[in-house]
Amino acid sequence: MTLPAIEELRDVARVVALPMATRFRGVTVREALLLHGPEGWTEFSPFVEYDDAEAAAWLAAAIDFGWNPQPAPVRTEIGVNATVPAVAAADVAAVLARFDGCRTAKVKVAERGQSLSDDLARVAAVRAVMGPEGRVRIDANGGWNLDEADRAIHALADLDLEYVEQPCATVDELAEVRYRTKHLGVPIAADESVRKATDPLAVARAGAADLIIVKAQPLGGVAHALQIVAAAGLPAVVSSALDTSIGLAMGAALAAALPELDYDCGLGTASLFTMDVAAPPLVPRGGVLPVGRVEPDAALLDAAAASPDRQAWWLARLQRCHAALVAHG
Ligand SMILES: O=C(O)CCC(=O)c1ccccc1C(=O)O
Ligand SMILES: [Mg+2]
Q1: ipTM of the assembly?
Q2: Which is the CATH superfamily of the domain at 6-69+299-328?
Q3: Residue 158: pLDDT above 90?
């Protein structure tokens, strides 16, 4: 890919700040830099604490989606899960009500400062709302050590879990948890061990997971994520990074191009925002998202515009990450 010049990127950049209905991974306002490329709108939104080396892969993905034609879709809509942040059990029903028609829910667990009883209460509340036919998966974001994961999965398995995402931080721990909990029949999914690893295939090679989570931005774009899934040889679930509707369309393009897709994807997260850049936003209806390019609404782009100092911060980050991509070819 020939990289567009930094001046070209700056000319087509818009920085937005979207308020969230519920605090999620410590975030109450999600910031993103959107770019209008020749192939359509695209998104650069690494979390603010990520360093430039990590964020550069997100920029490669953004440029790929905005400047290059994308792999052909093999499906026209994507089933998605509701995403439940680490809220109190009493607030679960209100969160789930934001997701229209989703038959799968993903629940955050192992939140710092909370206990296993908080997780049990939250997941039980989700199971109660979803009913016995609903699918319930959990995501610990690597927050448990081995014994905590072992104990928690044993305790939560009674609630009939579809899978456990990243119960522990390392590949070795994932392999050990998978071994210790195998008799429970709860599959282990790897997320951070794919998207934040120097080698995204190490977890598959180690036999440490039953499936992998793939995200288009951190993995450098749709085409690169497809290569990783093919090389891993494991079932994949496409998830968002709490993207705006523009970045979610990139995730939907990845999900649409996967040869096999047996799970609902984590692409319903626009439902966690109180405002988005597209009208209508790319939120699930009847539990699915349509596949296709999303255009922002001009008035919403203005209404969501970040403050001048945050715009300057994002444009400086864009410049540094662009320089990193130029340097690495
Ligand atoms: O997968 C989902 O349901 C939503 C996306 C999600 O959970 C997420 C969003 C932002 C950062 C990390 C994660 C994660 O999967 O760990
Ligand atoms: Mg995850």
Answers
A1: 0.98
A2: Enolase-like, N-terminal domain (3.30.390.10)
A3: yes
